[in-house]
TrEMBL record:
The keyword Hydrolase applies. This is 1D-myo-inositol 2-acetamido-2-deoxy-alpha-D-glucopyranoside deacetylase. The lineage of its organism: Bacteria, Bacillati, Actinomycetota, Actinomycetes, Micromonosporales. The keyword Metal-binding applies. Pfam families: PIG-L.
Length: 286
């Protein structure tokens, strides 16, 4: 089960992993916490959907999310509390954080209880979400982390907790390679960053627990990225990196292990190559 804050987060952070396991026949459940109402719009003809205009972007992004899930082969998607229950809070410190339905202001116990209901139904062996900084500090990502971890505690009280909880991340070595690639480029997303340590995300390689090789599903991930057209323009650095590094960048996704026992791995740091590594798949809940 993957718990994400907005439509497109699932694709950017974990799309190849989702496609990998869906293709392998695993039940992949995606829980999205908001409809992304406060997102930017990169399609000029749709500018009127913005929150400050018609405020219809969230509904449009739901359709983008459906298309992305189809590209990834994910058939079980839910909105936390039902579609429209929680609203995109916008970036940290904005007035949108105070909206009555902003996810950032959601009651933790109530939201965790809603996620617990899904856990009771699908009994995930593995759950994936963000770290306690929401990967890069977005309030909805942070709240998704809090809600997921609290729901897991409640599930443990009922004896149905997932065996493992992972947090999505990017290894420092991958960030350093990206910075080196874009150095001097006119389309450099790291232009104002002097050192990898200055980035608000990235994890030392020796703290990574798992590397999932979804390179066979890189095309599916890119199709899902294109489905989120309002948020990710064709000129995005994502496509630039994909064009230069191909599936090796797009399809390789990384995780730290927050709950559970690390299974067998390989390579210098013993990274797992399967999120189910070490689990008794016959004995654990399906």
């Amino acid at each position: 089960m993957f718990v994400h804050a907005h439509p497109d987060d699932e694709t950017i952070a974990t799309g190849a992993t989702m496609a990998h396991y869906a293709a392998a026949g695993a039940l992949v459940t995606l829980v999205t916490c908001t409809a992304g109402e406060e997102g930017e719009i990169h399609v000029p003809s749709l500018a009127g959907l913005a929150a400050a205009e018609a405020d219809q972007l969230g509904g449009y992004r739901v359709s983008e999310l459906h298309a992305a899930c189809a590209a990834l082969g994910v058939t079980d998607h839910r909105f936390l509390g039902g579609a429209g229950r929680y609203r995109d809070s916008g970036m940290m410190g904005l007035d949108t954080n105070k909206h009555p339905r902003a996810f950032w202001g959601a009651d933790l116990e109530a939201a965790a209880g809603q996620l617990l209901e899904i856990i009771r139904e699908v009994r995930p062996q593995v759950v994936v979400t963000y770290d306690d900084n929401g990967f890069y500090g977005h309030p909805d990502h942070i709240q998704a982390h809090r809600v997921t971890m609290r729901a897991a505690e409640l599930a443990a009280d009922e004896g149905i907790a997932p065996a493992k909880i992972y947090w999505s991340t990017i290894p420092r070595s991958v960030m350093e390679a990206g910075m080196a690639h874009f150095a001097g480029s006119s389309d450099n997303p790291f232009a104002e960053i002097e050192h990898v340590d200055d980035l608000p995300f990235g994890t030392p390689d020796d703290e990574i627990a798992a590397e999932i090789d979804g390179t066979d599903h890189a095309d599916a991930k890119l199709a899902a990225v294109r489905a989120h057209a309002t948020q990710i323009p064709p000129t995005s650095w994502l496509f630039s990196i994909a064009g230069n590094f191909g599936g090796e960048f797009v399809g390789m996704e990384h995780y730290t292990l927050a709950v559970g026992r690390k299974g067998p791995g390989s390579g210098k740091y013993g990274w797992e190559t399967d999120l189910f590594a070490g689990l008794d798949l016959d004995g654990d809940a399906a």
